[in-house]
Amino acid sequence: MDKEKEKAREKKKVNPKTEKKEPVKNWVLMQGNEAVARAAIEVGLNFFAGYPITPSTEIAEILAEELPRTGGAYMQMEDEIASICAVIGASLAGAKALTATSGPGFSLMQEGIGYAKMTETPCVVVNVQRAGPSTGLPTKPSQGDMMQSRWGSHGDAPAIVLYPDSVREAYELTIRAFNLSEKYRTCVVLLLDEVLGHMREAVCLPDMTKFRVVNRLKPTVPPEWYKHYDEDQKYLSPLASYGEGYRFHVTGLAHDVYGFPTNRPVEVATMMKRLKKKITQNIRDIVQIETFMMEDAKVAVFAVGILARAAKSAILALRKEGFKVGLLRPLTIWPFPDDAVRKMLKNVDTVIVPELNQGQLVHEVERLTKDKEDSDIKKIQKANGELITPGEIYKKIKEVL
Amino acid sequence: MSNVSQKIVHQYLRHNKKFPNVWCAGCSIGIILGAIIRGIADLQIPKDEIMMVSGIGCSSRMPVYVDFNSLHTLHGRPIAFASGIKMFKPHMKVVVITGDGDATAIGGNHFIHGCRRNIDITVVVINNHIYGMTGGQYSPTTPSGDLATTCPYGNIDSPFDICQLAIGAGSTFVSRTTAFHSLEIQNLFKEAIMHSGFSVLEVFSACPVIYGRLNKKGSPSRMMEHMRDNSISVKAVDKLPPEKVENKIIRGILKQDKNKPEYTACYAQLVESLRDKEA
Question: What digits encode the pLDDT tens for the residues A166-186?
């Protein structure tokens, strides 16, 4: 146990997050859920619809207090299905719209999320993950929605899913989630670990003047020329709002560029291609990763969210002992950072993938192991409501060294 | 239909949307669409201010043909989408076009909560007593004993009375008519859309191709005659002996409450009071 304490102390010493010398007045004690709500207001949120669910409820509570004061609209709906639908409706009317939920609610929202992607309507869904399946462990952490956030809705549509590892990053990625949703006209999912949603940390809030707030492109053409799904080379198109003279039609049916239903294969193919390409052609803009001590690493940990922080403290302890260990952490889990993972697989002997589930993201890493010379993959999986500790990651790395 | 009214309808149909429409010959939905358009034309509400939202089903295909802001949503969810739009743009006149299955089966929860909130949305429930688009399964309004493809031995479920459901859930304007009474649809729709609060207009409609065929209801015109002969105005109900009212479709405004505050107005008031407090 002394070792653990020592490691914790070491982590404090070199933690880059606390290294920055910021004036004391900019520091606040803030919870992850609160960071999401505050950042959303900061980025111009003016519509929230939701349904209470542990462990995401604080987001709704804070916004119920704040939105009426900032002139935005807050609605508590009858369920999560209604919540996502109201969010999409408000977004089409011009709102920056958000809903927040957890596992069971996220499952209920899947049809609506698919609708938002199909109709290319910007919105943000926060899923503070809890342990499942079903009602599961409402107050315990889990990383069980890696695949649901990618494939949860029926049919074939790409996803943008962001995953912070700290309260400060929850703040930053909330801003980024809105920016990406407005830019790419899609539903962006922000995944939080339960412990991150409920954890309070001392955070230095980012200077908003350094953030670019992206608002959707508005059409400049007269209404009769307007195509709801017009496209440029990057597959991004202007979006009119209801009630502003562009009397457009939106449907979840396969549609042509005007938004009218079609079943002509040529038009359906164009639509499907646009849905895919607007994400795949802009991967560099969307995908963000963090590498930590990877330059000379022989063993790498691939982890997301709170587990990446556990991994960091294990890595720091091992570095102190002279072992070449590093971390690759995606901040964007979907689209999956294929290039970065391939590079990691080429450069290290072993990759350790800790996950709070029975194996989800590890399949994506395995998918990219084509070469015999690629590294070995070791798993640490826990789905009992407990976290994976730095000690467990330390031990696993020691086994392979 | 007179030449004049045809011209009105043409002014409101989308010119860039290819016809014919999806509805079967003999279907009542076209009549209802015409009546709604004439109602809006009478009131001279600008097209830009009309937001027409629908769910999934035969009736829900209506918005695509009309030159309004239009949104064809998910099965059962139009009231939820409409609530978001109304809440964000309260000046818009939000009309939901839905069917019996869309509104009271899969969308039953959103329907009663819309009623309870009293949010200013006009819901036109086109009740043909069956799931037409999927080929004739029984819905929450299929009368007991009737046939449908999923109750080949007769329906053992009890049907909803949509208007009583809306009244019970707190809707402040509840009305009913049939597709035979085209002018009444137009007038009730005008009352409903001008009412400040959640307004429901249930329109009985004939589905001769599926419901009518399965239940031997005869030709489209026979089904129209049936609606004419088996409905009475709510104004006549008190004057008639009970046996003449039994099993009849009661038409007209069944409830109107102008005192219950409207949802978006309450929210605007809340925003205002907070502003005052902070100032």
Answer: 999 999 999 999 999 999 999
Give tens-digit pLDDT for B194-219: 999 999 999 999 999 999 999 999 99
Does the structure show a pLDDT above 90 at B55?
yes
Interface test with A, best of B11, B77, B272, B276 (most A CBs within 10 A): B77
pLDDT of residue B132: 96
pLDDT at position B126 over 60? yes
Q: Three-state SS string across chain A, please? A: CHHHHHHHHHHHHHCHHHHCCCCHHHEEEEEHHHHHHHHHHHCCCCEEEECCCCCCHHHHHHHHHHHHHHCCEEEECCCHHHHHHHHHHHHHCCCCEEEEECHHHHHHHHHHHHHHHHCCCCEEEEEEECECCCCCECCCCCCCCCCHHHHCCCCCCCCEEECCCCHHHHHHHHHHHHHHHHHHCCEEEEEEEHHHHHCEEEEECCCHHHCCCCCCCCCCCCHHHCCCCCCCCCCCCCCCCCCCCCCCEEECCCECCCCCECCCHHHHHHHHHHHHHHHHCCHHHHCCEEEECCCCCCEEEECCCHHHHHHHHHHHHHHHCCCCEEEEEECEEECCCHHHHHHHHHHCCEEEEEECCCCCHHHHHHHCCCCCCCCEEEEEECCCCCCCCHHHHHHHHHHHC
A236 falls in which pLDDT band (50, 70, 90)?
confident
Q: Which residues of B touch A85 (CB under 8 A)?
A: 73-74, 77, 80-81, 84
pLDDT band at residue B18 using 50, 70 and 90 as cut-offs: low
pLDDT class for A9, splitting at 50, 70, 90? very low
Q: Domain spans of chain B?
A: 3-278
Nearest CA in chain B to A245: B48
Residue A4 has phi, psi (to 5 degrees) of: -55, -50
Sequence-ordered list of residues with C-beta below 8 angstroms from that of B11, at least 6 positions apart, any chain: B41
Helix (H) or strand (E) holding B70: strand B69-72
Mean pLDDT of A9-17: 46
- Cβ of B248 under 8 Å from any chain A Cβ? no
pTM (2 d.p.): 0.94
Per-residue pLDDT reduced to its tens digit, A41-66? 999 999 999 999 999 999 999 999 99
Q: Do B71 and A81 touch (CB under 8 A)?
A: no
Averaged pLDDT, A223-246: 88
Predicted confidence (pLDDT) at residue B73 exceeds the cutoff of 70: yes
Would you state the structure tokens that stand for residue B115, as one six-digit string?
A: 């009623």
- Rounded Cα distance, A45 and A60, in Å: 13
Amino acid at A400: V
Give B-chain residues touching A68 at CB under 8 angstroms: 267, 270-271, 274
Question: Would you call B83 and A95 a contact, using CB atoms and an 8 Å cutoff?
Answer: no
Lowest mean pLDDT among B11-15, B97-101, B102-106: B11-15
User: Domains in chain A, please, with CATH?
Assistant: 2-210 (3.40.50.970), 290-400 (3.40.50.920)
Q: How does residue A10 score in pLDDT terms, banded at 50, 70 and 90?
A: very low
- Interface residue of B83, B88, B269 to substitute, partner A, most A CBs within 10 Å: B88
Neighbours of A225 (CB within 10 A): 10
Is A146 exposed, middle or buried (CB count within 10 Å of its CB: 0-12, 13-18, 19+)?
buried
Residue from B115, B107, B96 nearest B36 by CA: B96
Fold of the CATH domain B3-278: Rossmann fold (3.40.50)
Residues 260-279 of B with CB under 8 A from A: 267, 270-271, 274-275, 278
